[in-house]
Amino acid sequence: MGAIIIDGAAMARQVLDEQKAASGQLAQRGCVPGLAMVLVGDDPASAVYVRGKERACREAGVLSFDARLPAATTTAELLQKIDALNGDARVHGILVQLPLPEHIDAVAVLQRIDPAKDVDGFTWRSLGALLDGHALLAPCTPSGCMLMLERAGVPVAGRHAVVVGRSSIVGKPAALMLLERNATVTICHSHTPELAAVTREADILICAAGKPRMVTADMVKPGAAVIDVGINRLPDGKLCGDVDYDAVSARAGWITPVPGGVGPMTVTMLVHNTVQSAARLAG
Ligand code: NDP
C-alpha cells in the first residue's frame, strides 16, 4: 500500500480560512492584523516569495505593508526602517525577506526586530524561548511541519524522529519542536557517518538538507512519516524535494510532496504567527 499523501496546499488553505476567521474577530475589536514585508533590492526569486506571502495575507484578512528598499540601502538605513516598523502600531509582524544584499549585516538587521513582532521566529530571543519550551512565535517552516504531522494524525510522543539538517531556520527548531512533543530526536548533518543506518530507524523523518532526492527508499523505515522540506531546482527547471518521492511513497506511511507540501504551509504559518502576534499585542 502506498503512503498517505499529506497535501500541504489543501491544509494551508484550511489554516488560512481559520486565520481569516480569527483576523475577522480581531478586526471587530478594532485591530486588523498587519504584516510588514521588507524587501531590499530586486532579486526576482525574493519578489516572487513576497508576492506569495502578500496573497496569503489578503486571503486571510491580514494587511500587508510593502516596505521595498533599493539594493544600495545601507545597514544603518535598514536598521532605521526596522526601528520605525517596531514602533508602528499598525504592524504586528515584521518579515525581512532573505537573502539580503551582501553588504548588509543580516544578523544585526534580524536581531533588531522586536521579538513581539518576530513572526519568522529568527531572533535569538525567539529561538531561546523555543529552546526553553516557551515559544512565542516559532519559525514558520518547522511549525508547518508540526501542524502537518498533527493534522495527519501521525503519532509523535515516544517515537523516534530523525531530522536531516541542522540550520537555525529549519533543522534545529524542528528538532526542538519534536522534543517538546516527546519524541526521541536524532539530528543528522553532513558529517553524520552511515546516514542511511540512522534514517532507517526513524518513525518520523524530516529532510531539510537541500540535496535533490538524496533520501532513497532503502533509507526509510516501512510505515514512517516522511516530511520533505527540501526545495531543489533540477537542470530541467522542475522542482523536487530531498526525497526520492515515487520510490519512498511506496514504502512510507505518510509523505509530503514537493511542490505542494511544506512550502505552502510555511507561508500559512507566517500569516498564523501574524494573527497570533496581533491578538497578543491587542491584549
Ligand atoms: P542549509 O543549507 O542552511 O542547511 C542544510 C543542512 O543540511 C545543513 O545542516 C547540512 O549539514 C545538512 N546537509 C547537507 N548535505 C547533507 C548530507 N548529504 N547529509 C546530511 N546532511 C546534509 O539549508 P536550510 O535549512 O535553509 O534549507 C534546507 C532545504 O529546505 C533547502 O532545500 C531549502 O530550499 C529548503 N527550505 C524550504 C522551505 C519551505 O518552505 N519548504 C523553507 C526553508 C528552506 P552541515 O550543517 O554539516 O553543513
Query: How many separate structural domains?
Result: 2
Structural classification:
alpha/beta
Task: Give the overall shape, derived from the CA principal axes.
Answer: globular
Strand neighbour order, sheet with most strands: 1-11-8-7-5-6
* Total strand segments: 11
Which sheet architecture does the biggest sheet show?
Answer: 6 strands, parallel
The molecules bound to the chains, other than polymers, are: NADPH dihydro-nicotinamide-adenine-dinucleotide phosphate
Average pLDDT reading? 97
The helical percent reads 40-55%
CATH architecture of the largest domain: 3-Layer(aba) Sandwich
CATH topology of the largest domain: Rossmann fold
What portion of residues belong to β-strands? 15-25%
Distance between the termini: 49 Å
Radius of gyration: 19 Å
> How many DSSP H or I helices?
10
CATH class of the largest domain: Alpha Beta
Classified in CATH, the superfamily of the largest domain is NAD(P)-binding Rossmann-like Domain
Q: Which consecutive residue ranges, at least 5 long each, have pLDDT under 50?
A: none
Question: What would you say this structure looks like, in words?
Answer:
The protein has 283 residues and is of the alpha/beta class. It folds into two domains: 31-114, Leucine Dehydrogenase, chain A, domain 1 (Rossmann fold); 140-263, Rossmann fold, CATH 3.40.50.720. The chain is 41% helix and 16% strand. It is built from ten helices and eleven strands. The strands form three sheets. A six-stranded parallel beta sheet has the order 1-11-8-7-5-6. A hairpin with a 5-residue loop joins β9 (232-233) and β10 (239-240). The mean pLDDT is 97. NADPH dihydro-nicotinamide-adenine-dinucleotide phosphate binds at residues 141, 164-167, 169-171, 188-192, 195, 208-211, 214, 229-232, 262-263, 266.
